[in-house]
Amino acid sequence: MYPNSLTDGGEKTILCGQTKPGEPVQVAILGDSHAGHLFSGLAGALPDTNVAYFAHPLRIPVADGGDMSRSIDRVVKDPAIDTVVVNAFWAAYNIPVDALAQTLSDLTQSGKKVFMTDDLPDFPFGADQCKYGFSPLLPIERCTQGYDDFSQKYSTYYPQLEAVVDQVPGVELLNAAQYFCDQDTCSMKIDGTLVYADDDHMNHQGSSFLIARLLADNEGFKNAVSAD
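Predicted structure:
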């Protein structure tokens, strides 16, 4: 998932990578590790495009005077980058609406098409319990949680994301969480396939599944990345 890590002269490790080293980046993914787990799916869906990601673990994509600021500035100032996807583990943060809106505004004002996702459900157990069961002595799968458990968190942060997008014309909010939940439950499995790597990150299969759905259901997003 993360082919390269580097410090880039800063204090925190930055997870980053690109599909075509040495060529101009056309599509960038920016955020924390939940931005990183979009990379393999988007790279697989766009084999002719140089897709890159800049993922700062546990760091929301807003200016911080340090590593995240440098990544935002790098993406903003790169004229080859045409499309940017922003994502983070929103449920883990008290989202700074104005600061996040400023990040998106900086990106759009540099001429980039910007999309932000609402992320995906996190679970109170790991993917190992879904794959192997509670223990070797009790191999009972645990793959779902009640929708209400996720909804309590989602209903808090989703309005904040809407408030961010409302401040920045042209930014599109992509709804990703819906693909993992129905009206009763949220699941780590889709059509029998485990799509999570742990309690809150997708594996490669999950990333491919999600990107395919986002491209199929969001014409603006599909057109933006297809034009690169």
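Summary: Helices lie at 33-36, 39-45, 67-77, 97-109, 127-132, 147-167, 204-217, 219-226.
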